[in-house]
Amino acid sequence: MSVPQRPSPEQLSLGRDIRTPGIILSEGRTLEMFLRELIEKDLRLKDQVEARTFGEKEAANLKLFLNAFATKAEFRQRVRRLGIIRDAEADAASKAFESVVSAIEGFNEENPSFALPVPDRIAALTSVQEKRPQVGVFVLPDCTRPGMLETLCLEAIEEMERSARAKLLPCVNEFFDCLSKQGQEPANTAKARFAGYALAADVIDPQLGRAAQKGAIPWQALAFEPLKAFVRSIAGHQ
Amino acid sequence: MITKLAIQNFRGLKSVTLDHLRRVTILVGGNDTGKTSVLEALTLLLGDGAALQSLPLAFRSNQQTGQPSKEHLPNEGTRDDFENFWLWLFYDRDLRNRISLIASTSDGTQVQLNSEERSSPSQATVLFRVVEAGKRETPLIIRQTNIETIPGLASPPNLRVSRLSIRPSDPVEDAERYNQVALNAGGELRIEQVMREINPDVRRLRYAKLPGTSSPLVFVDIGLSRAIPAPQMGQAFNRLLHIYTEILSARTNVLLVDEIENGIFTSNLLPIWKGLLAVCEQENVQVFATTHSLECVRAALAAAVERGKDELGVQERLSQERLRSVRRGVRRRGTGQTDSGTDELGVQRMQVVNGQIEAVALSQETLAYALENNLEIRK
Question: What is the value of pTM for the model shown?
């Protein structure tokens, strides 16, 4: 007897009913989980905006996801604002932005009757058009620098620890500095440092998405403000 | 080949554009989303006089009759068809809603059909067709209580349309058509070649009437001591024989099939699609087919991607693993140009958004991606 396979995050994203006028498509499951926590627990906007993942980073993924998702009748009927959030990684934010724009343009080529507006600036929604959703793109950590979600979270943690009695992040940094002196560099410094912090903070699960679910993210940090402003705009709250 | 079809004010379709049409286009969608209307639009746009006259019965079974009674002229329809079919070609049954059908083709030409109200001499609404710039022909005149089709009307050049019946074919008629095709130069070989898509053991096909029997049949030599009558060869074989002889005998360019999966067992869908795609490529035929069956779409996709490699067994159903390999295959073929126009299969999903019907084009790659992720592609 075969064991039924668990649906992938992409399958869940494509299959879930669309109930909100704002939709955010995120790169990867971790970012999706993080955004869901932010939307539900901190911003309390779950009736206005929902996060889904378009899959892991792969050039064709976003365009394919849009082909399948943004042509659905319920998307065309309900969605008024579409946000796309991805990491800058090692590149400048502008390069990640261009890659998203290129995916949207690819979608428009294949679907001329349902073309999405193409944003010309990072973090700004396109203007309101009849029968078309507004579209915006946000590149982590802050739409300018290289980095990723973990970079932003570590900055938020650092900001909050400035006024805290217990400071864990310097210990984590010291730990990685020590490893570095031994010639041991993590493949992804930001991810490794965040995992180190999560373990130090006794969150148990060092994966950022699940750490967010366990309450390890200081949502009140100012570092999150640009991201929160973007999410609010997709929810329809300027 | 038709690459784009724009439809306005036709039946339930207020304004719909079908982009990126392929050699084989499968129309999917819920009930009453206009799939059959697209086939009717193509018949009206491309059909000859006979095709237009039989349009009420072509895809719908709710008409009393397509034959005019004694008091009608041969090229007039019945009052029943007039009231219950022809007037309903117009959106909201209102003749003032001007029908516009425009097919754009890969060679840059267009075929158009438009309706026009004429106040004189007899308050008629005329459907006129424009095939070449400035040259109009009138396939259909709608008067106050009847319609008139033009018997001598021909299909536009290289766009001869025919319709495939969903009913089981008559083996004797298939045999006669086979005989007609086989007499053409190379005809036998072409049919045998495509029938091997269904059964690689096929050596020869023969038209024959056995002594003591009343009707001719096609007989199939598969290496046994005697050739087998085609009706004994199974449904997929006979279905494809019917399709192929129909295409060749009618010299069809555009084939319309409503509910293509009808009466075909699931495991036969794949070989039928493989055969159909082979025929279409070989004879340069474009197919528009409707279906409600997801298995039918999966089989068509697998056939389109893997045709010729002979990797799939006839009984194999598409698994998730298979879909992933199909998707990889699509990417390989597309070399990154996922919608390059080389894909021979496309799906058009008819859907209702805010009360209006629209058509969404799904390329082979998008289709594979959607199926791999268990997305319901039909709505």
Answer: 0.86
